[in-house]
Specification:
The complex is a heterodimer. In chain A, 81% of the residues lie in helices and 0% in strands. The longest helix of chain A has 31 residues. Chain B has a single domain, classed as Four Helix Bundle (Hemerythrin (Met), subunit A) (Up-down Bundle). Helices cover 80% and strands 0% of the residues of chain B. The longest helix of chain B has 40 residues. The radius of gyration of chain B is 20 Å and the shape is globular. Classes of the chains: A mainly alpha, B mainly alpha. At the A-B interface, α6, α7 and α8 of A face α5, α6 and α7 of B.
Chain lengths: 223, 230
């Protein structure tokens, strides 16, 4: 089977499993929404204009919800014993990586697409512009690229779910910082062309994460 | 005493003496910085410890990355021992650099801490290696621990270049010592500065040798215990 056919099969498998249970999606979405509401109360009385903290709220909601979804990605595989089957399949280990990564990315993007209009309504802002979506996509991609590897690591540790955010957040912080800066600057009305260096940081990290993940994933999956 | 032990002991003594010389030089020989308040002039002398500590933290994490990559390629336990030893020393030097920087920041910036890009990225780097040790402690099987830690060690090192570059990319209040045109120290300071840099670097390698040996011994003890069913 060629590489991308194998990747496609794994992505399709995850989508179909998700369409039947809607486990990952519903928990991610509800959690993201709840974090937006919790932050709303946490900041409301102390911040002169909520617009100032919206970039932070959006990115934190995405990070928290994303962590939740990533945790499920390999826990499900391991609990039902399907990980062994996946590993026995005659495909390259990196095909498993890209399959799971694209699946995670899609789930996160779907959550974001539904969350964003709600945030726009809550705070009376415009977030559905191409520039905003590009920034969100690049940040989310970095999240999924690293998160998929770390999720496979965390599921094998004693602490399991607790381990993932501890591993993930420090590695992702540069991407998060750049993402928050981009969203904030775009909300302030700056053009995307003036924000080149923040975009550069995200893109460099996205590429770096993908390359390192591609090279190391087979060692994580080695049993 | 084996021959390697004797050599290590000799190097330890040399390293100790050079550290002492560097410390004396920093306090007694180096000229005062010009144009600063008395407090700042005294605090400015951290540069002879702060810069070597910061440099060694990055060198140490670099060695951890090399050890991690080498472990994944060869599966030899030695590389894992080297990686974990170096990461531990790196954390110690990171804390030393943060503490000394904080002492200088109080008179110079009028605060112990500020969320400057350089300080922020350095803190991220520190947290990365804290997470590295948390990951290790959450894994029981030695081979798997070594493998996972190696993968994480490689990811973690992606943050080291951004720390080094952060003061050049973003506006920062952190001083830049090295840039393409000139070197931010006066002529009288340079010998003491480089003596400190060399002495500290030697000290790092001595520490690394001892720490790696300790790690190897610990692994042997663990393996022996398992053999005896202890």
């Amino acid at each position: 089977m060629n590489f991308w056919r194998a990747v496609g099969a794994i992505v399709w498998k995850d989508i179909r499993a998700e369409l039947r249970t809607k486990d990952i999606f519903s928990s991610m979405f509800v959690f993201a929404l709840l974090s937006v509401i919790v932050f709303n109360f946490a900041f409301e009385l102390r911040v002169p204009a909520m617009k100032m903290v919206v970039p932070g709220i959006v990115w934190i909601a995405i990070s928290f919800a994303g962590t939740l979804g990533l945790n499920r990605a390999f826990v499900i595989e391991q609990d039902k014993g399907s990980l062994a089957g996946l590993l026995l399949a005659p495909v390259d280990r990196s095909a498993i990586y890209f399959g799971k990564m694209i699946g995670n990315l899609l789930f996160m993007l779907v959550v974001e697409i539904i969350l964003l209009p709600l945030v726009m309504i809550f705070y009376n802002l415009s977030l559905l512009t191409p520039a905003h979506l590009l920034a969100l996509f690049l940040g989310t991609y970095g999240f999924a690229a690293v998160g998929t590897v770390f999720s496979a690591i965390a599921v094998n540790t004693r602490a399991r779910e607790v381990m993932l955010p501890i591993l993930l957040f420090p590695v992702l912080l540069p991407v998060l910082i750049a993402g928050v800066k981009l969203t904030g600057a775009l909300l302030d009305g700056e053009a995307l062309s003036t924000l080149g260096n923040w975009l550069q940081i995200i893109i460099v990290y996205d590429i770096g994460f993908t390359v390192v993940a591609y090279l190391t994933f087979s060692y994580v999956m080695e049993e | 005493m084996k021959r390697t032990d004797r050599i290590l002991l000799l190097l330890t003594v040399i390293s100790g003496a050079s550290i002492l010389a560097a410390a004396l030089g920093a306090f007694l020989l180096a000229p005062n910085a010009a144009g600063l308040t008395p407090d700042e002039t005294a605090a400015q002398r951290i540069i002879y410890f702060h810069v070597p500590a910061a440099w060694l933290s990055m060198l140490a994490f670099g060695v951890t990355t090399i050890g991690s990559i080498a472990y994944l390629i060869t599966s030899k336990r030695f590389w894992d021992s080297l990686a974990v030893s170096s990461a531990e020393i790196g954390i110690a030097f990171t804390l030393a650099a943060m503490a000394s920087g904080s002492l200088w920041a109080k008179p110079a910036w009028n605060t112990w801490w500020t969320w400057d890009p350089r300080l922020t990225t350095y803190t991220i780097m520190f947290l990365l290696y804290v997470a590295y040790f948390m990951l290790r402690s959450a894994l029981d099987d030695p081979a798997r621990r070594a493998r996972f830690a190696a993968v994480y060690g490689i990811f973690a090192f992606l943050s080291v270049p951004i720390t080094f570059m952060s003061i050049r990319w973003w506006r920062t209040i952190h001083p830049i010592l090295l840039d393409s045109k000139n070197f931010g120290l006066s002529r009288g300071m340079l010998p003491v500065f480089f003596l400190g840099l060399i002495a500290f670097t030697g000290f790092y390698f001595i520490l690394l040798a001892y720490r790696t040996r300790l790690e190897r011994t610990r692994e042997r003890v663990d393996a022996l215990k398992e053999q005896l069913g202890y």
